[in-house]
Amino acid sequence: MASPSKKPRSGNARSAARLAAVQALYQREMSGAAVPLLLSEFHQHRLGAEIEGDQFREADVDFFNDVVKGVDARLAEIDAMLGENLAEGWTLDRLDRPMRQIVRAGAYELVARADIPTAAIINEYVDVAHAFYEAREAKFVNGLLDSIAKKARG
C-alpha cells in the first residue's frame, strides 16, 4: 500500500494509530503475514519512522495493537456485519483492499470499543478515507459505519 496521498486532519497519537492499523491490515491481506510478525515490523520500522521522505507521526502503540489484533480475531464477525450493511448486489470483495481495511477497522471499534464515542470513530475513519480517496469514497465510509453503529450501538 502506497503512502496516503494526504494525511488525516487530526494530529493525535490515536489518529496515527488508526492510519497505521489500516496500513498493517492491508499488508496482512496482501502478504498473509502473521499478526505478531506484522506488529513487530510496524513497531520497529514504521510507527513514528521516516519512510521515503515522509515522517510518520508517533502512534499510540497499544491502540494500534488493539485494532490490528481485534480485526484479525473478529474478522468473520466484522465481515458479516459489513456485508449485511452493503447495498444490494454489493459484496465486501467488491471493495478495493484499502477500503476494506478502513471499514473493517472502523467496524471493529464500533463493536468492541464502547469507551470511544460513535461520532469520534466515524469521523476518524472518514479522515483516514480522505487520506486515500476523494470525497465520494469518504461519504461511503461515513454511511456504512453509521449504519453499523446504529445496529451495534443502538
UniProtKB/TrEMBL annotation:
InterPro entries reported in the protein's UniProt record: NusB-like_sf, NusB_fam, NusB_RsmB_TIM44
Q: Tell me which domain of life the UniProt entry assigns to the organism this sequence originates from.
A: Bacteria
Can you give the residue ranges of the NusB/RsmB/TIM44 domain? 16-150
Record's keyword terms, sorted: RNA-binding, Transcription, Transcription antitermination, Transcription regulation
Looking up Pfam families in the UniProt record yields: NusB
- Its job: Involved in transcription antitermination. Required for transcription of ribosomal RNA (rRNA) genes. Binds specifically to the boxA antiterminator sequence of the ribosomal RNA (rrn) operons.
The family annotation for this protein states: Belongs to the NusB family.
Q: Which HAMAP family match?
A: NusB
Q: Which NCBIfam families match?
A: nusB
Q: What is this protein called?
A: Transcription antitermination protein NusB
List the gene name.
Answer: nusB
